[in-house]
Write a structure and sequence with these properties.
It contains 20 helices and 24 strands. The protein is α+β, with helices and mostly antiparallel strands and 675 residues long. It folds into three domains: 204 residues, no CATH class; 257 residues, Rossmann fold, CATH 3.40.50; 119 residues, no CATH class.
């Protein structure tokens, strides 16, 4: 079925699936807003907790998936809101203790989704030394995820997701526009929910205890064990729901609250979904227009990227495009690229500036009839094995808990089950006229109509005021997953709020090394200083897409010398989807554009590479090995070259001074080139 799965990936967070590139080709923007100056107020808190003692009492040990942290598991009430129910479940927390004088605890309501694990995805690299020195960093796996008692239905989800990606809507327009398609969508939702709940294997009545209100109370249980009177809480994406619900119940225990990529909890399910559809569409249009304003991008997409996208979408709406996908083994697999696959890929690439640029490069290739670059983005983001078309899944994200938490927390329309389903179909059809490109989020309501823990009554929440709590709302006007208007609405209602936002930007803006907003947060937490202004614009340049990287020339004869070829290969390798989004836990291989294969993976010093007849430009195939040393910041390739000419060449790129050199022999001549 078309459009019924998109919402999972629109709201799920890819904040920390960042590029590990050879020296920052796609660097995060440089802000121009000044760091905060002396504020009018001073934040003071009193801490009395003993984190070290708690970790020792609970037999804390290095987290298996994240050894920078110490993991402990604590029992918490299954139902925090029924004192008569004495049943408990275990929830895992991970702690990195302050390296110096302890100011308190800085807890991360980190996971996106819902469904993202906190512990396996957490890290220290997002924080400046001042925060690491004075704060115990705390991550957690919320109940039902990871180390906190995983609930999962991978088989049911894999089948449902595969049906979505490969569905060919050959009747009518795209979407559920015929009665038969609508009934199929309803039946598919019911089948998935029945299969998923059965596969989870617990009493369906217990799923209600895995909602966000219970998760927020788990944090409170941990605070009580630590013994801190107050602590600092950061929420990002779905984590802002956790943080806001905690703040609504326990504002007196917060020294500060930071909401990054903020969800407005006063919206019900369908309101949030429809707002998100419009936001993704707006970001896609802004991305395509930004291409037209970039000379290199405009040159490759004819100066009208929006028309190029719409042309491709129209072709795919008529019928899937057949193509051959090259594997690292040298085999080519016959594939079909569908309209649903384009929607999925476009949506997922809209989260960040670099991802948008990569999408534009793939669109340029698709516009010329080559679907492989777009398919590589698809397979990487969908976590599907292109050889077997098997859904692999993300080990740090639970598709199951996305449904369980989302459908437990929010209502989609009101009335009987049949009435809610009818209203969902009607809203989905109506959105086709107002959101012309990326839509379909509201159809999550079909699944929630059948989910056992879905509310029977209409859900409403009071606006958060967080009385007395300094609260930072971090925001971006081009955040597709948590629309700007939602964060602005939350800020407007706060008792003591500060709104830091980017004109343009991405989904979530903290922790990427930008002075704004990072310095404001550090100044508040470490020095107790608040900004002088309630609203501050963080000016990023670029703010919509990373500078476009032109695609590599197709023939070696088009380059002035072999050094330029190697430099172009280095650039291409750093932005290959398999590399750009990789976590570097194991070796990964992919096919080079004109034959051969490239393999990369972790090494003791950083990264290691090997390649066999890897041809990035026709007439220049390289075989050999290479590495990137994290300490020395030197990238090397030692190669034998075949093709138009033969030779043996060694390439060195020094990321300390930006120099590159190429030495060896090529075409019977000695090579000693540098830049």
């Amino acid at each position: 079925m078309s459009r019924n799965k998109l919402f999972i990936f629109l709201i799920s967070l890819s904040l920390f699936a960042l590029a590990c590139n050879f020296g920052g080709l796609l660097n995060t923007p440089t802000p121009t807003a000044p760091p905060p100056t002396a504020p009018p107020t001073k934040v003071t808190t009193t801490q009395s907790g003993d984190m070290a003692g708690l970790l020792e009492r609970l037999n804390g040990a290095p987290c298996e998936e994240n050894p920078d942290f110490t993991c402990v598991t604590i029992p918490v009430p299954l139902n925090h809101f029924d004192a008569a129910n004495t049943e408990t479940i275990n929830v895992a927390f991970a702690v990195s203790q302050a390296t110096g004088e302890r100011y308190g605890m800085f807890a991360q309501a980190f996971p996106g989704g819902p469904g993202g694990e906190g512990i396996s995805s957490g890290g220290l690299g997002w924080f400046p030394d001042g925060i690491l020195e004075h704060f115990d960093l705390v991550y957690f796996d919320q109940r039902g995820l990871g180390l906190s008692g995983e609930l999962a239905c991978p088989k049911a989800y894999a089948k449902d997701f595969s049906n979505y990606l490969n569905y060919d809507d050959s009747v009518g327009e795209e979407g559920y526009d015929t009665p038969a398609e609508q009934q199929d969508a309803i039946d598919e939702a019911r089948t998935f929910v029945d299969s998923c709940v059965s596969e989870i294997g617990i009493d369906p009545a217990r799923l209600v205890y895995y909602g966000t209100n219970q998760v927020a109370e788990d944090i409170e249980s941990f605070r009580q064990l630590v013994g801190d009177d107050k602590f600092w809480l950061y929420g990002v994406s779905y984590g802002t729901s956790v943080a806001q619900i905690y703040a609504a119940a326990h504002a007196d225990h917060l020294a500060g609250l930071i909401l990054d990529g903020t969800i407005d909890l006063t919206l019900n399910g369908e309101e949030g979904a429809l707002a998100q559809e419009k936001a993704f569409d707006e970001v896609l249009v802004a991305t395509l227009k930004a291409c037209d304003a970039d000379e290199s991008c405009a040159a490759e997409l004819g100066g009208n990227a929006l028309a190029a996208y719409d042309s491709l979408a129209s072709k795919l709406a008529e019928k899937p495009i057949a193509y051959e996908y090259p594997l690292a083994s040298g085999k080519k697999v016959k594939k079909k690229f569908t309209f649903s696959q384009l929607e999925f890929t476009a949506s997922y690439q809209m989260y960040a500036l670099g991802g948008r640029m990569l999408f534009l490069r793939a669109l340029a290739s698709a516009n010329e009839g080559d679907m492989v670059p777009m398919a590589r983005l698809l397979y990487q983001q969908a976590t599907v094995d292109p050889a077997a078309d098997e859904y692999l899944g993300d080990s740090t994200f639970s598709d199951t808990m996305f449904y369980s938490v989302n459908c437990t927390d929010d209502s989609y329309f009101s009335g009987t089950q049949e009435e809610r389903i009818a209203q969902t179909i009607e809203a989905g059809q109506a959105s086709n006229g107002t959101v012309p490109r990326l839509d379909g989020s509201v159809y999550t309501g079909l699944y929630c109509a059948y989910w056992p823990s879905a509310p029977k009554e209409f859900v409403t929440r009071e606006p958060l005021t967080a009385a007395g709590v300094p609260t930072f709302v971090l925001n971006a006007t081009l955040d597709p997953a948590t629309p700007f208007a939602q964060g602005k609405a939350v800020f407007d209602r706060l008792d003591n709020g500060y709104h830091l936002y980017v004109e343009g930007g991405r989904h979530s803006i903290y922790g990427f090394g930008n002075e704004c907003p990072d310095d404001y947060i550090t100044n508040f937490m470490v020095n107790g200083q608040l900004p002088e202004q309630r609203e501050i614009i963080c000016e990023w340049d670029p703010s919509v897409i990373s500078a476009y990287v032109p695609r590599m020339s197709a023939n070696a004869s088009e380059f002035d010398n072999p050094l330029d070829i190697f430099s172009a290969i280095e650039t291409e390798l750093s932005i290959e989807p398999e590399y750009y989004y990789n976590g570097f836990t194991e070796n990964t291989s992919f096919a080079c554009p004109y034959g051969g294969a490239f393999t990369f993976g972790p090494s003791d010093a950083g990264e290691s590479y090997s390649f066999t007849d890897c041809e990035y430009t026709q007439g220049f195939a390289i075989t050999g090995a290479g590495s990137f040393n994290y300490d020395t910041r030197i990238f090397t390739l030692e190669t034998k070259v075949s093709g138009d000419k033969a030779g043996a060449l060694n390439y060195i790129s020094n990321y300390n001074d930006g120099s590159i050199t190429l030495t060896g022999e090529y075409g019977g001549e000695t090579i000693n080139l540098s830049q």
